[in-house]
Amino acid sequence: MARWQPDARERLEKAALELFTEQGFAETTVPQITARAGLTTRTYFRHFADKREVLFAGEDEYPAKVARMVAEAPPDLTPMALIAHGLHTMATTAFEGQRARLKARQAVVQSDEGLRERELRKLSAMWEAIAEGFQTRGFDNLTATVAARIAVTAFNVAIERWLAAPDDQPLTGFVDETLKSLRAITAEPL
Amino acid sequence: MARWQPDARERLEKAALELFTEQGFAETTVPQITARAGLTTRTYFRHFADKREVLFAGEDEYPAKVARMVAEAPPDLTPMALIAHGLHTMATTAFEGQRARLKARQAVVQSDEGLRERELRKLSAMWEAIAEGFQTRGFDNLTATVAARIAVTAFNVAIERWLAAPDDQPLTGFVDETLKSLRAITAEPL
Q: One matching Pfam family, short form (chains A, B) (predicted)?
């Protein structure tokens, strides 16, 4: 009966986001999601631990991927250059072209306190992974920690501004303006 | 029977932290907390919505307090000077002298995923409030947002390093070294 569904994960994600948007996260059940996707609840739970996790699909792999990217970047880059370079790569490879879906997802996440908390956990997983990447490059713990927080914070601000903008402009532009603002603020006298 | 207990809140917080530390967060019940504090569960729920919230007591007032502090600071301060000044004030008025309690609390929070997520929500409430404070001072949205994130991130890193240090050194020293590192990293060429 259960045929192999190579795109099951994507179909479940799409169906879930549609239903969460149409009728609310709390009001949506896993059986409703699987019905819309034309799949079984058994298939659902093979891919996602619970109803919430369908909104955070694939994000478990991000931190390790980003940590590796930091660790393996050209050795002569300053932390700041590496951050700028890394955020541009992230923006173009994983975000550009998906603004509509990410906006819909953001609206769902913002609608529920538990989802907002879960979303924040991503930040913390990311900055821990990036700090590890910087430590692998030989930076001391403080520099690695601060550089990682700068990277995650700047990207987070850039994404928020990108999603809030009236039309779809390149995310890289928002990354640049955020880093520029960060550099201007921190350069001011104490 | 139920006498007025002016220190009920503090007693519940103390009893809860002791029990969470001794036997674990998941294994502790509200009746156990109230028994140790010599109070009723009714009193408990007058102060805290659930078992989790006893670890986050009083923190709801922080964001508004900090936003007001930012908005009302001397007008000639740069955002960076205001951040440094504000973090010093926070450190000395609300943190110094409480390292042992905060270390115990941190261990409990780290032990439970739900608590870790709840803890992160504090960060987001703080940076939103601080951004509002900066906007009240007339800064544009981007500067206000970035300055607020810098403040919260730097304080968060400083507290982590303060709690992880082998002995009790002033938190203000960790604030200064974190801001110094932040300024050094962001000043480097891209």
A: TetR_N
Is the pLDDT at B165 greater than 70? The verdict is yes
Lowest mean pLDDT among A94-108, A173-187, B115-129: B115-129
Q: Is B123 on the interface with A (CB under 8 A)?
A: yes
CB-based contact A121 B121, cutoff 8 Å = no
Residue bearing the bigger pLDDT, A60 or B18: B18
Computed on alpha carbons and rounded to an integer, the radius of gyration of chain B in Å comes to 19
Q: Do B189 and A153 touch (CB under 8 A)?
A: no
Q: What does the block give as tokens for A32? A: 């409703």
Does B116 sit within 8 Å of A116, measured CB to CB? no
Amino acid at B84: A
Question: What mean pLDDT comes out for the span B28-47?
Answer: 96
Looking at residue B4, its pLDDT comes to 64
Distance from CA of B62 to the nearest CA of A (A): 18
Distance CA A117, CA A123 (A): 10
What's the pLDDT score for residue B3?
A: 57
Domains of chain A by start residue, with CATH: 8-55 (1.10.10.60), 58-187 (1.10.357.10)
